[in-house]
């Protein structure tokens, strides 16, 4: 459960950052298909990127080569975390309830299309047309809604526009973002991205339609159609009043294309996804070495903890405490600590390679720094050397 919560948290951050990046860098650039692709990329990477850390092997979490110790696992008792888990489950239940309501609303909109589908008639071009007296002019996949009071000229213009939506499967974009908004309903940036996408889809249809109809006639038809129009949310309307001004402005005064912005935005989105997907950034473990010192990862005689491996894990188990703050936040997972066994056997240069939670990171460093001196590592010729270790410590709520 906690890993799912962390995944959603990181996805929310990525969606927010991606939205801001899109608005600042790309903004009103007139490459509408590229804008469409960018918005979908932000959404997909925001959802998928946090999963990357789940599949990263332990060996890849190191800043430099090191001996990988077995995972140490620590669990808190049921009495310690029962209240925290109850609280977090309450929030999850409330969040999930809103998601369920939004999903049910989406399902009801699909159901509302069934009568329209039954009353539709097949046109010569293969699309199904539904005539209505509610002023709706829109499309959803191959289903086209037309106001029965339209003149022949206006109907020709609207059909040309809606055919672009149907041909380019814009309804699939709309459906995808309905699902994303349902899952991330609390994030205002998700709704902003959805609005930007819908406007961009209209720009695509406008750009192709005005070539056929003529710009002046097409703009006049947009204005005329917006008067008294009505729309079904699960559709792509010909004229949406809230976006009409922007669409007309884009056709009359197209902004200067700056392709360099797309070149800048692409790597920024990738870097953003890779960085935010991790709970904390990786740090290169840097031991304080003298010019003649070296760090070793494989030696003839490995360092040994007093009493051996069993005593080592008994020490970790007896000294490590699950931080109360982490229990309250219902945080669990693996923190990676790097440390060096120096020539004198002292444990030094403890570093967090991959963090999990400030309280957990602090506890892991405290325990590692409290270790007694080890028997130092030696080369085959008997020379005592410094050896670097990586220790994964799993904090698990029971």
Helix content percent band: 40-55%
Number of helices: 12
Our Rg estimate from Cα atoms comes to: 30 Å
**Main sheet attributes: strand count, strand direction, barrel closure:** 7 strands, mixed
Structural class: alpha/beta
The SSE string, one letter per element, is HHEEHEEEEHHHHEHHEHHEEHEE
Total DSSP E strands: 12
Assembly type of the shown chains?
single chain
Number of domains: 2
What share of the residues does DSSP label as strand, in percent?
A: 5-15%
Describe this entry's structure for a reader.
- The protein is of the alpha/beta class and 398 residues long.
- It folds into 2 domains: 2-275, no CATH class; 283-397, Fusion Protein Consisting Of Minor Coat Protein, Glycine Rich Linker, Tola, And A His Tag, Chain: A, Domain 2 (2-Layer Sandwich), CATH 3.30.1150.
- 54% of the residues lie in helices and 15% in strands.
- It has 12 helices and 12 strands.
- The protein has helices spanning 2-26, 32-55, 78-119, 152-167, 170-183, 188-213, 215-226, 241-252, 260-276, 309-319, 324-328, 358-369; strands spanning 67-68, 72-76, 121-122, 128-132, 138-140, 143-147, 236-237, 295-296, 333-341, 347-354, 377-378, 384-397.
- Strands 1, 2, 8, 9, 10, 11 and 12 form a 7-stranded mixed sheet that branches. Strands 3-4-6-5-7 form a 5-stranded mixed sheet, with helices on both faces.
- A hairpin with a 5-residue loop joins strand 11 (377-378) and strand 12 (384-397).
- Helix 1 packs antiparallel against helix 2 (32-55) and helix 1 runs antiparallel to helix 9 (260-276).
